[in-house]
Write a structure and sequence with these properties.
Layout lengths: L4 E7 L4 E7 L3 H4 L7 E6 L12 H12 L2 E6 L15 H14 L25 E6 L1 H15 L6 E5 L16 E5 L7 H8 L6 E4 L10 H11 L10
């Protein structure tokens, strides 16, 4: 954990939800720094050791920080300080929807001392929301993006790392979804991702030599995410 990261608990549907909040470096010295948006990061399978502190999830959060986003990494049910038990993605989806509601409510941040007096908090209800997930988190994230769209609260973008294609039933995703996968992924074979992406005409960004957990390739995830934002409209500059 670094100085930009704070761990808090909020009240969820079945009890407490523990989550880490990662702030852009600029907010440490400039409370008026204009935040670009909010980024939700969902971790891998909780029954296989997945937590909000997973290295891939942390890498994704920090990439969004570099882009000017405030990142939130919740623990799924039964992990760490989060109440409940694993619910095969059903309850986890409801929890993530609850967390996005929390993120987009200015008064929510009052319990988070680090954001006191920061200008962006008052406009958190209008900030763009990025949804991202690694492995099992990508499965839940895909359904969250679909649910948000159905509710008229569409996410700005979806980022899927180690996509759970072929392992769980993913929801159809937007055409601009960022798919990052390891060439040597032993958990979710690259061919499964291609088979899922092909009918949707989605581009898959393959990291050569990377396994499922991107050992010694975490910087590639960061570079792909930050690079994908180059040339995108930045509301802070409009």
């Amino acid at each position: 954990m670094n100085s930009r990261t704070k761990v808090i608990q909020i009240e969820g549907i079945v009890g407490a939800i523990e989550m880490s909040i990662d702030l852009p470096d600029e907010l440490k010295s400039d409370h008026a720094f204009v935040v670009r948006g909010l980024a939700l990061v969902a971790h891998p399978h909780p029954l296989m050791g997945g937590t909000m502190d997973n290295k891939v999830a942390q890498t994704m959060a920090r990439a969004f920080n570099q882009l000017g986003y405030v990142s939130v990494r919740p623990n799924f049910r039964g992990v760490g300080g989060t109440a409940g038990v694993h619910d095969e993605g059903v309850g986890e989806l409801e929890d993530l929807l609850h967390v996005t509601d929390w993120m987009r409510t200015p008064s929510s941040w009052a319990q988070f001392e680090a954001t006191t007096h920061q200008a962006w908090v008052s406009s958190s209800n209008t900030l763009p929301l990025v949804v991202s997930g690694f492995s099992f988190g990508s499965f839940v994230g895909s359904h969250l993006v679909q649910r948000l769209a159905d509710l008229g609260r569409s996410a700005e973008r979806l980022v899927m790392v180690g996509s759970a294609a072929g392992k769980w039933t993913l929801a159809p995703v937007p055409a601009d979804t960022i798919l990052i996968h390891g060439e040597l992924d032993e958990t979710i074979p690259l061919t499964n991702v291609f088979d899922w992406a092909r009918p949707q005409e989605l581009t898959v960004q393959v990291v050569p030599g990377a396994d499922h957990f991107f050992h010694r390739r975490l910087h590639c995830i960061r570079n792909i995410i930050t690079g994908a934002w180059l040339g995108m409209p930045d509301q802070r500059k409009q």
